[in-house]
Amino acid sequence: MTTLISYPNKKLWMAAIKPPMYSVAIMPIWVGTAVAFAETRIFHGAVFSTFLASAILILAWENLSNDVFDSETGIDKNKHHSLVNLTANKALIFGLGNSCLGLGLLGILAIAWWQQDLTVIGIILLCCALGYMYQGPPFRLGYQGLGEILCFFAFGPLAVTAAYYSQTQSWNMTSLAASVFVGIATSLILFCSHFHQVKDDIAAGKRSPIVRLGTARGAKVLTWFTASIYPLNLLFVLLGIFPVWTLLSWVSLPFAFKLCNHVLQNHNQPEKVSNCKFIAVAVHFWSCLLFGLGFMLSGG
Ligand SMILES: C/C(=C\COP(=O)(O)OP(=O)(O)O)CCC[C@H](C)CCC[C@H](C)CCCC(C)C
Ligand SMILES: O=C(O)C1=CC(=O)c2ccccc2C1=O
């Protein structure tokens, strides 16, 4: 009996915490560090692990505060796996979120202290500002359909560059090019997260890209953007900017096909399309992991 009662609860909590989503915090640090290793043979293990822990904490803040801010607009009233709805304690979730942010920023400050250089903390503060503007008052830019652009810059150019800089204290064009790959792969996840929420989004006045485009056109746009990362990788290899090993990322193509087929077929059926966000997480995880591995192998 206990199992029967607690199982759905456990599922709800896992949906609220969404552990697989945290790979989006890990991959920009992994790729930025891998490019740094390929270009300079430098690898600072303590900086890498501190940055990873901080990135995860900062993303936890983003997600906890997302549930807090969304509880204020009413958009999450049907979202049973909102942490605010689950705990009925907004102040607790807000406090927990801010503690994660504080701890995460402390880790980044430690990196700044080791480097005697404020560049990395400056870049990460900018990421946090974009994260706040996505969902917090008075901006709520996600409600205007601008989330994917913020997401691209935060997880792409800013986070990858910060990771590269944290290892080398220098700037690099290859890392900037690599950040475009990571930024697009991350924004695909956010784009996918809107397909099943059209009704609630319209009711709350949120003009997500899928509300704006409609689900059918959204599915086509998703297919083009998902497909774009693979030829982009090839182009940079042919230009001699990326090592040939980065083509390992093409091994993730079956997940990309699965994602596009699934969304093209089910875009207007919320209960069927709702899991596409997690197929997009698999595309992101495998493509970025193998992409970064390609840089590591070329530097070894
Ligand atoms: C919280 C995010 C998406 C959830 O959006 P939504 O409200 O539609 O979801 P629910 O339906 O589940 O409520 C992600 C938003 C990402 C944002 C645009 C940028 C975040 C920047 C991070 C704070 C940067 C982290 C950098 C780190 C890797 C160093
Ligand atoms: O809960 C979500 O839908 C998302 C959470 C999250 O942290 C994230 C980060 C980067 C891209 C997309 C997303 C989500 O969609």
From TrEMBL:
Pfam families on file: UbiA
Protein name per its UniProtKB record: 2-carboxy-1,4-naphthoquinone phytyltransferase
Membrane topology term: Multi-pass membrane protein
Keywords: Cell inner membrane, Cell membrane, Membrane, Transferase, Transmembrane, Transmembrane helix
GO terms for cellular component: plasma membrane
Any one Gene Ontology molecular-function term assigned to this protein's record: prenyltransferase activity
Organism: Hassallia byssoidea VB512170
Enzyme class: transferase
Entry's EC annotation: 2.5.1.130
InterPro entries found in the cross-reference section: DHNA_phytyltransferase_MenA (IPR011937), UbiA_prenyltransferase (IPR000537), UBIAD1 (IPR026046)
Residue spans crossing the bilayer: 20-37, 42-61, 91-111, 118-135, 141-164, 176-196, 234-257, 278-297
Pathway: Cofactor biosynthesis; phylloquinone biosynthesis
Primary role: Involved in the synthesis of phylloquinone (vitamin K1). Catalyzes the transfer of a prenyl chain to 2-carboxy-1,4-naphthoquinone.
Superkingdom of this protein's organism: Bacteria
Family, per entry: Belongs to the MenA family. Type 2 subfamily.
Catalyzed reaction equations: 2-carboxy-1,4-naphthoquinone + phytyl diphosphate + H(+) = demethylphylloquinone + CO2 + diphosphate
Major site of localization recorded for this protein: membrane
GO terms of biological process kind: menaquinone biosynthetic process; phylloquinone biosynthetic process
